[in-house]
Automatic annotation (TrEMBL):
Keywords: Decarboxylase, Flavoprotein, FMN, Ligase, Lyase, Magnesium, Metal-binding, Multifunctional enzyme. The lineage of its organism: Bacteria, Bacillati, Actinomycetota, Actinomycetes, Streptosporangiales. This is Coenzyme A biosynthesis bifunctional protein CoaBC. Residues 1-184 are annotated as: Phosphopantothenoylcysteine decarboxylase. Binds 1 FMN per subunit. Pathway: Cofactor biosynthesis; coenzyme A biosynthesis; CoA from (R)-pantothenate: step 3/5; Cofactor biosynthesis; coenzyme A biosynthesis; CoA from (R)-pantothenate: step 2/5.
Amino acid sequence: MKVVLGVSGGIAAYKACELLRLFTESGHEVRVVPTREALKFVGAPTWAALSGNPVSAEVWDDVHEVPHVRIGKGADLVVVAPATADVLARAAHGLAGDLLTNTLLTATCPVVFAPAMHTEMWQHPATRANVATLRERGAVVIDPAVGRLTGADTGPGRLPDPAEIFQVCLRVLRGRPLDLAGRRIVVSAGGTREAIDPVRFIGNRSSGLQGYALARTAVARGAEVTLVAANVTLPDPAGAKIVRVESTADLRDAVLEASAGADAVVMAAAVADFRPATRQGSKIKKTDGEPEPIRLAKNPDILAELGERRRAAGAARAGAEGSGVIVGFAAETDDVLANGQAKLARKGCDLLVVNQVGEGLAFGTPDNAATVLVAGGEPVEVPFGPKEDLADAVWDLVAARLS
Ligand code: CTP
């Protein structure tokens, strides 16, 4: 695909180099169109070397090729990252003083803006109005991240992680909707560990891959995501708020807190059903004779509790106590569908993603196949494929229930 990467004059311009790499390494042809101000932060040779294409901020270079029209008309996607308050204003008002703004006026393809600026500029009524105008015209404007800005100050205005911008762009390129925009979603991932003593635990084989795929795809569909991660060693998915936990008790606290008022909660974590009844304060030593048996106590069922809370709140939708759509996962080795149907009813969730595990299936692998059981509806089969595809199938069903 042909991508135009517009870069405007903010300190975050250097992060656009990474975005450029993500595009080129996945086989896209990228033409970088910086503003004059962007070139004060990162020079044209950097953009030219990384993209393999000529770079200019002006309409007066290579005029015989009519670049001010050709670049925009030939693009499959234009992404402006970082987009300053100035470039948003010029785009909203249709000004055309340089090659980037000419390109924005001639592009008929989707346009994504990733703004980055100081909080005051982002919140100024002029910028708010310009963003609203651009969104009304169909442009995707990604809300900036919250965090450290150029100086000592912090707040909304940071350029989101290039990987997050890239995911949104891929989604737009594939024509997928941002149908979770404005939704608050909680995903649990990984597997809980129950301490036996300070060095040993009871745990399970969950890698967190499916939960992380769910978080990543929800961010790419526009959601605000809290990811409660139990003992996962994968790289953080961009754009999600991560809460790290170890035990089932920690996971329960984090999920219940994050799910108050959420639009959807997806329990992809493998939760230990039992924990040692007592945790030894010191390392258990090897002794002669028979070892002491480990007595187990039952853990709370978090998914069932979410369903119970929602029922108690009498809310079919998000409320102060209840959560919105509730999704469970069930890994089964035998009688997969029958066990799944019984679990869906028992736990009071809306969707239950059932898959067969064991013998190299599902755990730690990048691919998965599953059946999504739907309360009051027909099951949906998701064929064997990347965990991202299964995640998208889940979000399709969640988005349908939310709308
Ligand atoms: N789950 C939970 N709390 C638990 C156990 C499980 O919230 N204590 C959630 C999991 O995150 C998953 C779903 O319930 O979304 C089903 O998990 P599973 O282990 O298959 O269910 P169990 O109730 O433990 O049933 P089983 O008898 O098959 O172990």
